[in-house]
Amino acid sequence: MAKLPIQFRLNGSDRATFVDPASNLLDTLRRGLGDFGPKYGCGQGTCGVCTVLVDGEPQLACLTLAVSCEGRQIETASGMADGPHLHPLQDAFMDHFAAQCGFCTPGMLTAARALLAKNPQPSREEVVEAISGNICRCTGYEPIIAAILAAASGTSVRRA
Amino acid sequence: MLELRKDLFADERDDNLNVVGKGVQRQDMPGHVTARTRFFDDHAFDGMLHLKVVRSPHHHARIRAIDTSAAERAPGVKRVLRGADVPVNKNTLLSLINFGKDDEPSLAVSKVSYKGEPVVAILADSEAQALAARKLVRIDYDPLPAVFDVEETLKPGAPVVNETYPGNYFEYHERFDHQKLRFGDVERGFAGADIVMEHRYQMSPIEHAPTETNGSIAAPEQNGRYVVHSCAQGLFFALGTTAKIVDVESNMLHFIGGTVGGGFGGKVDSLTEPLAVLGAMLTGRPVRFVLDREEEMLYGSPRGAERIYVKDGLMRDGRIVARHIRSYFDAGAYTRLSSYAAIKCTAHVPGPYWIPNVASDIYVSYTNRCPSTAMRGFGVTAVDFALEVQMDRLAEAASMDPMEFRILNAYRDGDMKPHRRAAKNTALVECVQVAAEKANWPLSEQAKRASSLLGGGAGDRAQIPATQLDARGQIGRPDTRSGPVTQVLPAGTSRIAPSKQPVMEGARDGRAAPTQVPRYEPQRPAAPPPPAYQPAPPPYQPGGSYSPPPAYQPASPPPAPPPPAAPAQPQHGAVRFSSVFGTRRR
Question: Containing domain of residue B579, as a range?
Answer without folding.
Answer: 494-536+556-586
